[in-house]
């Protein structure tokens, strides 16, 4: 085992980054002073730098993680300053022609090359193989792109908007959501009266769109949410422009062509054909599913509201998808009662333990090793035969202010082989933003959230079980379209009856207070069973593909948008790019919904993947 990493305080972040940079500079300078192209070998030129990169990676990863998980904005600001320093240092190293001449000499030494193991050969082939013009391309654009991407991500994590709604407008909203919003905004502020503030984040928008009975409430929430993060539009446009310029300097006609060299899919033409083929196949399915929703919607509008409906607006999709599910007796609220977040996550660890021969043990971590009080830590071991230590797994599962808004696995320490032959053990984080419960309630997962959690846990276990010599290749540090494959396949486990029943545990069995409150809400009902009834699971599995066409079409919309904005070749095309028009045109065409009332929105600036390493890669989710 190794000690848990210490989380640096805000005032320690910049000094720590300076220390990391200094160690790397010292190693590079030592190599440059002692070696010539005639004497350079892998062992004296690249290996010392790789070993220093190994040694400082955990400190870099800790700093990088805090931009997603640090509770305080001032900590995140310090991280952004530190990462800018590191980007500047990397730019100076890339510009250092002397070191690259040594590397080229090592690559040309075929006798030395033949003695290397496969991973070391790969390191040599991948490390610094840039020509002079390519170096200039990185220096001109690379660091600046990273800074703009970080600002984009910062805006996402700090977004705190929402809508004030009356109690009447909130008709149909589950008590679990109302109870969560009440302390934050009931009778509050200048709004006064009986209004409640519903945030866009922390599940607010989705709850309104899924459960609010009044169509005008759903529309109001959707349109307001659609207008958030206007500030990300110019940032995204600048990122797209700079990416294209960098690609041109690196002799690629488009950013897509450049980026796909780092993916499993190499050919832009093939990828474009793949996406178009999917569109032709899936759009027909989507139109059929929208027709079913529209039939239910029109009847509902006429019977309950005395209204007519033309077209199918996007704010009505979650609501009528839920009603279609309930027609076949699938109630996501009822299902969620059997999947309390923490208990379900522990149950998932049990699945990985039994399948992979692992053992997870809770760790009583000191405060200095946690960035938030809600974080939990587990040590991970081989269960048989020798119970070897594997690494540490962290849970950071609930939404909070200033935190990354999506779900992801974040590496905190890569594994690698030390010079003395011992191994540095890895550490990884499941960092999610599942909605928080009421102050006295229990965080519950709907089925799609169970799938999401298992998906991310797959990434985390992949990261922990990796065995590499160098941090550069550890875990999911590989083409992301390949890296998504294990977790995408693991999602199928969450559609198996025995798995869903095994994971289930009604939340009222966890604390007596939960049971008492449940009894108040269900005065004439028997206490719920501890395990989910078999018929609920069977109905869920039977209707697995209900509305799935629309789900995949939304993923396809993002994928095609991603591909098209990064496939523009001419400067004039890039300068005239209208992100709003392209985004809403694609969504109308692909998803068969009417976006005519919301084309002034900025929804394309609300998902993080395209500025977090998944540009020209969103297709991996298809």
TrEMBL record:
GO terms for biological process: peptide metabolic process; proteolysis. It comes from the Eukaryota. Pfam families: Peptidase_M3. Its cofactor is Zn(2+). GO terms for molecular function: metal ion binding; metalloendopeptidase activity. CDD domains: M3A_TOP. Keywords: Hydrolase, Metal-binding, Metalloprotease, Protease, Zinc. GO terms for cellular component: mitochondrial intermembrane space. The keyword Metal-binding applies. Residues 209-622 form the Peptidase M3A/M3B catalytic domain. Binds 1 zinc ion. The keyword Zinc applies. PANTHER family: PROTEASE M3 THIMET OLIGOPEPTIDASE-RELATED, SACCHAROLYSIN. Belongs to the peptidase M3 family. This is Peptidase M3A/M3B catalytic domain-containing protein. It comes from Aspergillus niger (strain ATCC 1015 / CBS 113.46 / FGSC A1144 / LSHB Ac4 / NCTC 3858a / NRRL 328 / USDA 3528.7).
């Amino acid at each position: 085992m190794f000690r848990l990493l210490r989380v640096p305080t805000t005032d320690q972040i910049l000094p720590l980054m300076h220390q990391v940079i200094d160690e790397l500079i010292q190693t590079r300078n030592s190599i440059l002073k002692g070696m010539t192209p005639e004497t350079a070998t892998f062992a004296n030129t690249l290996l010392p730098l790789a070993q220093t990169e190994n040694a400082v990676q955990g400190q870099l990863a800790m700093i990088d993680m805090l931009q997603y998980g640090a509770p305080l904005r001032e900590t995140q600001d310090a991280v952004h300053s530190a990462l800018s320093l590191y980007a500047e240092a990397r730019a100076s190293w890339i510009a250092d022609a002397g070191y690259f001449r040594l590397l080229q000499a090592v690559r040309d030494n075929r006798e030395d090359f033949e003695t290397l193991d496969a991973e070391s050969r790969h390191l040599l082939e991948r490390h610094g193989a840039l020509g002079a013009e390519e170096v200039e391309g990185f220096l001109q654009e690379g660091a600046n792109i990273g800074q703009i991407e970080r600002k984009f991500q910062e805006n996402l994590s700090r977004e705190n908007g929402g809508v004030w709604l009356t109690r009447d407008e909130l008709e149909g909203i589950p008590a679990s959501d109302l109870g969560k919003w009440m302390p934050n905004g009931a009778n509050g502020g200048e709004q006064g009266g009986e209004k409640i503030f519903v945030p866009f984040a922390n599940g607010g928008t989705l709850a309104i769109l899924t459960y609010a009975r009044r169509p005008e409430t759903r529309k109001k929430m959707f349109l307001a949410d659609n207008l958030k993060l206007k500030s990300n539009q110019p940032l995204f446009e600048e990122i797209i422009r700079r990416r294209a310029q960098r690609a041109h300097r690196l002799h690629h006609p488009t950013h897509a062509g450049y980026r796909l060299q780092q993916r499993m899919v190499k050919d832009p033409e093939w990828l474009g054909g793949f996406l178009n083929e999917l569109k032709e196949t899936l759009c027909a399915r989507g139109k059929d599913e929208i027709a079913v929703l529209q039939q239910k919607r029109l009847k509902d509008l006429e019977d309950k509201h005395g209204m007519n409906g033309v077209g199918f607006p996007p704010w009505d999709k979650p609501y009528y998808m839920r009603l279609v599910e309930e027609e076949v007796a699938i109630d996501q609220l009822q299902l969620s009662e059997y999947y309390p977040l923490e208990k379900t996550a522990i149950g998932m660890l049990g699945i990985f333990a039994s399948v992979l021969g692992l053992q997870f043990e809770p760790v009583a971590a000191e405060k200095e090793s946690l960035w938030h009080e809600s974080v939990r830590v587990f040590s991970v071991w081989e269960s048989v035969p020798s119970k070897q230590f594997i690494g540490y797994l962290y849970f950071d599962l609930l939404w909070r202010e200033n935190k990354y808004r999506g779900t992801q696995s974040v590496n905190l320490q890569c594994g690698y082989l030390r010079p003395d032959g011992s191994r540095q053990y890895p550490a990884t984080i499941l960092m999610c933003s599942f909605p928080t419960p009421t102050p006295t309630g229990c965080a519950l997962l709907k089925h799609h959230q169970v799938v999401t959690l298992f998906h991310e846990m797959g990434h985390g276990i992949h990261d922990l079980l990796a065995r590499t010599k160098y941090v550069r290749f550890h875990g999911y540090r590989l083409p992301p379209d390949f890296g998504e494959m294990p977790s995408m396949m693991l999602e199928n486990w969450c559609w198996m009856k025995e798995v869903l029943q095994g994971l289930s545990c009604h939340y009222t069995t966890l604390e007596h207070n939960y049971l008492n409150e449940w009894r108040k809400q269900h005065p004439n009902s028997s206490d719920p069973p501890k395990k989910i009834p078999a018929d609920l699971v069977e109905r869920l599995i039977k209707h697995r593909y209900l509305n799935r066409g629309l789900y995949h079409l939304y993923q396809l919309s993002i994928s095609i948008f991603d591909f098209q904005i990064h496939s523009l070749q001419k400067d004039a095309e890039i300068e005239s790019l209208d992100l709003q028009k392209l985004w809403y045109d694609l969504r109308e065409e692909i998803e068969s919904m009417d976006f005519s009332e919301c084309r002034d929105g900025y929804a394309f600036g609300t998902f993080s993947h395209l500025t977090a390493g998944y540009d020209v890669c969103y297709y991996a989710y298809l």
